[in-house]
Amino acid sequence: MTRIRDPFGQALEALRQSVAAGRHAPGRPIVIADEARTLNLSATPIREALCWLGGEGLVERGGAGGFFALRLDATALGQRYGFRRLCLLEMMVRDPGEPPPGLITASSAAQRLVELWRWRVRSIGDIALYEAFASVQGRLDRFAGAEARLFPDLDAEAERLAGARPDEAADLIGAYHDRRAAVAAVLVLNAESEGTSSTEAAP
Question: What pLDDT sits at residue 1?
């Protein structure tokens, strides 16, 4: 018998994916009734999920109790790349090792690299470090599409990083993040355009 997922969990996963994919234009309201209709759920789990995502910094809470897609800021984006770099360098010092075969299953090398990083940071067992990494990664997920459009060598870069020797990994991680921080403004413009296009295409 298939277990029916709880409405809150269903809403949280769907909205997290929607936010990461940039389906809401930056600064625009996220309408609870519209999301409930799209997901075939009541308003309550949608509201609860948006509150949760607001706590993670992935959506903004309005003064009147509404929710808004996160406004994009180039300076903050550059700083978040820098912070993720620090999390990963700390992870390397503690050397969590390699994941079991078959655990990392994303379709692209760039996605597999993020999965690998997430596994390695979690495997250290430092809850505070993992929560910090997961929080900043959640905000950077929003820019995955913009990165892919801006950097045609994204998968090759990810493969180099995933297979790097310990003595070269720190420099590669640094270059990976410096490269993105240097064009943070372009990534923001690209992501904003993506969000606007998605909104205009919606029925």
Answer: 36
Retrieve residue 181's tokens: 């921080």
Domain spanning 7-71, CATH class: mainly alpha
Among the listed residues 78, 61, 62, 49, the one whose alpha carbon sits nearest the alpha carbon of residue 139: 78
Give residue limits of the domains in the chain. 7-71, 74-190
Prediction pTM value: 0.80
Q: CA-to-CA distance for 102 and 115, rounded, in angstroms?
A: 12
What's the confidence (pLDDT) of residue 56? 82
pLDDT grade, residue 196 (50/70/90)? Answer: low
Burial class (CB in 10 A: 0-12, 13-18, 19+), 140: buried
Q: Three-class SS string for 26-69?
A: CCCECCHHHHHHHHCCCHHHHHHHHHHHHHCCCEEECCCCCEEE
DSSP string across 123-166? HH--HHHHHHHHHHHHHHGGGHHHHHHH-TTHHHHHHHHHT--H
